[in-house]
Fold this sequence. Notes:
The structure holds two protein chains of two kinds.
Chain A: H1 2-18, H2 21-40, H3 48-57, H4 61-68, H5 77-106, E1 121-128, H6 131-141, E2 146-151, E3 157-163, H7 166-191, E4 193-200, E5 204-207, E6 216-219, E7 231-242, E8 248-259, H8 261-265, E9 269-273, E10 279-281, E11 284-300, E12 306-310, E13 314-315, E14 323-329, H9 337-343, E15 344-352, E16 355-358, E17 361-364, E18 373-381, H10 398-402, E19 406-415, E20 419-421, E21 427-443, H11 447-466, E22 470-478, E23 489-498, H12 505-517, H13 527-536
Antiparallel strand pairs in A: 1-23, 2-3, 3-22, 4-6, 4-21, 5-7, 7-8, 8-9, 10-11, 11-12, 11-21, 13-14, 14-15, 15-18, 16-17, 18-19, 20-21, 22-23
Chain B: H1 4-34, H2 36-48, H3 51-58, H4 75-105, H5 113-136, H6 145-167, H7 185-218, H8 224-228, H9 233-265, H10 274-293, H11 301-323
Amino acid sequence: MSRFRSLLAFLRNTWRGLTSMRTALVLLFLLAMAALPGALIPQRSLNPAEVDKYFTEYPDLAPVLDKLGVFEVFSSVWFASIYVLLFISLIGCLLPRCLEYYKQLRGRPVRTPRNLTRMPHHASATVSGTPEEALAAARRRLRGWRKDEREDDDGTRSISAERGYLREAGNLVFHFALVGLLVTVAGGKILGYEGQVIVLADGSEFCNSGTYNYDSFRAGLSVDGTQLSPFCLRVNDFDAKYQHTGQVASYRVGMEYQSGADLDAGTWRPYDLQVNHPLRIAGDRIYLTGNGYAPRFTVTFPDGAKRTQLTQWQPMDPTTMLSQGATKFDQPGVTDDVRRRQTQLAVTGLFAPTAAYQGKVLSSQFPDLLDPTAAVDVLRGDLGLDSGRGQSIFGVDQKMVESGRLKKVARENVRVGEEIRLDDGTTVRFDGVERWANLQISHDPFQPYVLGFAVALIFGISASLSIKRRRIWVRVAPAPGTGADDPARTVVEVGGLARTDQAGYGEEFTRLAKDLLGTDGSDAESPGAASARGRKS
Amino acid sequence: MVNEMLSNYSDMAFATSVVIYIAAMLLYFAEFAYGGRKQSARTREAHLVTAGAAESDSSTGERVGRIDTPSKRPLSERFGGMAVSMTVLGALVHAASLVFRGVATGRAPWGNMYEFGSAICLAAVTAWTIVLFRQMRAERRESSPAQLRGLGGFLLLPVVLLLFLSGTVLYARAAPLQPALQSYWIVIHVSAAIVSSGALLFAGVASVLFMLRARHENNPLKLARFGSRLPTTQVLDRMAYRATVIIFPVWTFAIVAGAIWAEAAWGRFWGWDPKETCSFIAWVVYAAYLHARATAGWRGVKAAWINIVGLAVMIFNLFFINIVVSGLHSYAGL
Lengths: 537, 334
Ligand code: HEM
């Protein structure tokens, strides 16, 4: 029994400790500290290449950091545990505060303290008129305040007024919005997906019918790729404008799309896709996230057979668009596997939209197609496409080159229209260049809610920080020593208290007191002095 | 296209404003250093007497920016008055520099780090001027004008440093924006970030001075001259607090606006890009500051420390993240 009770006590203390402001503070700090490596150390989700570089630069340190999850801070257990604790603490704080707030809203303003001179702000004066008149004037002046009038034990009457209830409301909205943000962001991680796909700008199409259509695909925790929103895209052209410095002025993708009923009807709708102007259809968003060149090569084999390939090459330098890649060919009509593996061709090397040479080495001096040139090696042999090993579309399998099964048979610089003749009479012609667009398709059904909570967050915090919760009390009593024949005089006493930060209430109080006392303060205790006292508290 | 003549005017105005700020800073420091005994005596008096009563002896014609009765005022005070005038003048010229650049390029004048750093400094100077003029109003005055102006030099010091860096290392010629920045969100998101950074710079300086003044108040022998010429800890604390309170929602807005923009420009509203991460950290630190101010035992020195850490994160976010770490925000024009 006593063990049960001590367990209860332990739980209660833990709960109290967890939901205390101090704990929240410490957790906030921990959160900030924990996020720090995310800014300083490359993150796998953002930049895997940088992470690899980190491993080669710090071979001893990196594996240790990796164990600690430093390369994936924001999905690490310790980061999650900090914010989960923080949110538990937050909710534990919030629930009682809601209750408290509800009570305050229903309750009456606090009764007038006996001794108003003790208040941080205080002023008093004797005014002409009866106490009733003074009270009526005060009532008028305090329009917009929550008021309550009471008769005190000693027969004096007073108004207690309070204002600024929205402050707490704003505060609660802010904190609930935080919880809402966490929940909706998490929802997006569960039900959302994001994929990348390169589409050639020659009228090629992409349909969102399965994850296999993507070059890379990141699925939410409960997305299996079978329920993607159906739509199709067709990329007709890609237009990039550059300044004379080579800086990009604008990108534009001329494309068409169909979704919903259009899919059955076969109608295409046009759209100009630009950076900052994603296409929003069928609950998905389509972005232009990259672009590049795809050289077109035609191989004419000795027997007269021709093959043309258009393959995207990969930009190596975004400012000059120098690109690298590999365009791969199978000789047509070869059915024998062994022979096939001796006659496959790869055209691989560099492509420069505007050629420049460093010695004999090709580089590019401008990103636009002013003088398109390719510096290529032609390789022949076994491309290793049947080896079962995955290989990049931007290069050849180096293992095949090393083992001698893929041999270099030519190395040349070619401009558009030029061709390379191989030893066996095969020719490789550089026909021209097409552009491609890298499209990102994103799906997050929770996004509108995230925005809603973010807006609530801003309004909540603004209200909470700009509104002051403050109280004022007005007490009236007939001035002593007034005979029945004298004109009525009343002692009016006001006291003020700001419930939160005192800063700034002094001025409002001074103004209020001036109006309520109907004097310029000459026979009053100086309101200025009183509020100065208030500031020190 | 870029209008070369206007962009040259902009550069000239920028350089001029830096010179004016340096002059203003030296004048502030001159007043601070030569404030002399008389002044600290008066300061002490101002603390003993309540603020309302202190009006009468310190309101002898100290209208900011007006130097109409120079003969009666001690030299140091005239320095102070001149410093304030120079600050305002500098800010006007500085603003002109930004306007020229905006017109020259036909876009918001904060598309690269040079422009951005410059705009932050203007925001900081503006914040300072607003505080100064508000606090000078007799009914609010909580410390002597000389004490208040004592902050000026310490604010202008980082401003001048930052401007110098912006104008030299970070300088970028006027040019159009890259596609990712061609959006009206640049006006919304970046201006909010600029105003917040400027105001938080002011708040941070106030907190640093708070620490110094607190040392002096705890032991009047420490920093005896220096500390006694600063406003009281209470005043400094409240300046830092109010600046932060006013600007925290703006900073929140800047981050949210950034997220809305990122949704359109980068394909997701939040992706822990280094700048996003660091902004988030700064936001959390300032949230912690606000919480600390409301937690018994954390007000005062501890809270001031948190505010200083906040400023450090902001500065780190501005320089380190833009220059050293590569992320989506790395179009600083370096
Ligand atoms: C969640 C998303 C974002 C966050 C949290 C964020 C945060 C910030 C912050 C804190 C600053 C100012 C401060 C500094 O450098 O210290 C800033 C500046 C800036 N932001 Fe963002 N931002 C976001 C998204 C974006 C997007 C999508 C763009 C444009 C494509 C953008 C463009 C800029 C620009 C141009 C500046 C001016 C500064 C400079 O040149 O360094 N931001 N951002």
